[in-house]
């Protein structure tokens, strides 16, 4: 198969063609903590009420509200203390007229009681240490309690048979708490995608190895692997392939058991850019140039795995910023779709640029910037220094990417521009 000559396509068209290839992955059962960040495949229904019984929301005394009527600091009501009740225990003896039960937070409400008087509204704090309080046979109440005061009623959180978490909900810490509260230890979720990551180029050296003249360390594989992990996927590093068809083919075949194969470098027009040649010979090509900067040379296609699956391949540019920006725009949505997540779109806000942003060649320009909030409450964007696609520190310093349209040659200081936020915390002033 010969490599096709194609014109550049838009970011939107490239993303649509990539996403059309992917489907949601199969369901697996995961332990609760391992499911964090995955998406529920089935609705979760409560097998019982939560709370299962009426219980106290505070440490205090379980009483009949009517017995505290008219209580004040000058004229307290005195009640007989008939028992102590800790959380986890049930009391069957009813609370009668003039009775009180010393009770701890979470303990089931004794029969007959309809209010909890907090310790702070009794003479409890005046008695000293707990042991003295526990021996007291009478409690003085300084404030009248309303019926229902400080009581958590049965099923006020969850009712038996209620759908507590719908299918399709991402599992966050709060969902894990809910799942644990109904006694679950595992949950059905859509499987995390495994993303095989391969760097190419004779000039690339693994971090930790001696750096020879003319060589550079492999930043791309590690930055992309970190993005995969942060977006919910499982990165698998394949190492470095030399600039030969034979070595690249061998390394690519090692990654065909993954859900997606990502390579960096080898997709432009250089003499040794062999990824597109191997893709043309071994697989199928969809496109390989996108109207964006950085990241114009982006290949997308697929390889046939031994098990008959078509494994999607995303060929990233070799420059480290281009690699990260391209994966952000195209790899992240693909991972979200495989996870069953919606909402892969990043927040876009309007900010006033303090720098001139020059767009030289009619491609959409994603310049790295830092967005802050001005004293006037508006957002302001400052470029993070030189914008060369090899300057990785410009990415490290950024919390957003400008979106300068293809037909806009420049934005002047003071112009309002769109910024896609990478780290969405309220920009600091």
What does this 3D model show about the protein?
The protein has helices at residues 11-19, 130-135, 173-181, 220-230, 245-254, 275-282, 320-339, 393-396, and strands at residues 27-31, 44-45, 55-56, 60-63, 77-85, 99-103, 115-118, 138-141, 151-152, 163-165, 186-190, 194-200, 204-205, 216-217, 234-241, 260-264, 283-287, 292-293, 299-304, 310-316, 348-353, 357-358, 364-365, 368-373, 379-383, 400-403, 410-411, 416-421. The protein has four domains: 11-25 and 192-339, Molybdenum Cofactor Biosythetic Enzyme, Chain A, CATH 3.40.980; 29-50 and 158-190, Molybdopterin biosynthesis moea protein, domain 2 (Alpha-Beta Complex), CATH 3.90.105; 55-152, Molybdopterin biosynthesis moeA protein, domain 3; 348-421, Beta Barrel (Beta-clip), CATH 2.40.340.10. A hairpin with a 5-residue loop joins strand 24 (368-373) and strand 25 (379-383). Mean pLDDT is 91; it is low at 1-5. It is an alpha/beta fold and 429 residues long. The longest helix has 20 residues, at 320-339. Helix 1 (11-19) crosses helix 7 (320-339). 18% of the residues lie in helices and 28% in strands. The two termini are 55 Å apart.
């Amino acid at each position: 198969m010969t490599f096709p000559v194609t014109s550049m396509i838009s970011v939107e068209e490239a993303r649509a063609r990539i996403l059309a290839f992917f489907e949601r992955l199969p369901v697996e059962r995961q332990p609760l903590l391992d499911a964090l960040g995955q998406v529920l495949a089935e609705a979760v229904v409560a097998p019982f009420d939560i709370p299962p019984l009426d219980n106290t929301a505070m440490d205090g005394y379980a009483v009949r509200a009517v017995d505290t009527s008219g209580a004040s600091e000058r004229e307290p009501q005195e009640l007989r203390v008939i028992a102590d009740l800790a959380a986890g225990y049930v009391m069957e003896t009813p609370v009668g007229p003039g009775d009180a039960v010393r009770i701890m937070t979470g303990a089931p409400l004794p029969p007959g009681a309809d209010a909890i008087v907090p310790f702070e509204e009794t003479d409890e704090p005046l008695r000293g240490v707990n042991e003295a309080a526990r021996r007291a046979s009478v409690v003085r109440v300084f404030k009248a309690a309303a019926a229902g005061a400080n009581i958590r009623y049965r099923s006020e959180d969850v009712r038996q048979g209620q759908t507590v978490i719908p299918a399709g909900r991402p599992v966050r810490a709060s969902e894990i708490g809910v799942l644990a509260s109904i006694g679950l230890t595992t949950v059905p979720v859509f499987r995390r995608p495994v993303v095989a990551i391969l760097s190419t180029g004779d000039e690339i050296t693994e971090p930790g190895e001696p750096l020879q003249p003319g060589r550079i360390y492999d930043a791309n594989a590690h930055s992309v692997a970190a993005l995969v992990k942060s977006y919910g996927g499982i990165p698998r590093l394949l190492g470095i392939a030399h600039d030969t068809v034979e070595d690249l083919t061998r390394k690519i075949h090692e990654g065909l058991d993954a859900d997606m194969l990502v390579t960096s470098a080898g997709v432009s027009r250089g003499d040794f850019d062999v990824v597109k040649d191997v893709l043309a010979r071994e697989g199928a090509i969809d496109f390989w140039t996108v109207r964006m900067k950085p990241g114009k040379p982006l290949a997308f296609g697929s390889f046939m795995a031994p098990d008959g699956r078509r494994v999607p391949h995303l060929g990233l540019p070799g420059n480290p910023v281009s690699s990260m920006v391209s994966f952000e725009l195209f790899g992240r949505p693909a991972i979200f779709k495989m996870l069953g997540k919606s909402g892969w779109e990043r927040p876009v806000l309007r900010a006033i640029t303090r720098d001139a942003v020059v767009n030289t060649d009619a491609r959409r320009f994603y310049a790295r910037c830092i967005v802050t909030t001005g004293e006037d409450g508006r957002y302001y964007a400052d470029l993070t220094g030189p914008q060369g696609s090899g300057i990785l520190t410009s990415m490290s310093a950024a919390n957003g990417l400008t979106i300068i349209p293809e037909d806009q040659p420049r934005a002047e200081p003071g112009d309002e521009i769109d910024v896609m936020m990478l780290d969405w915390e309220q920009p600091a002033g």
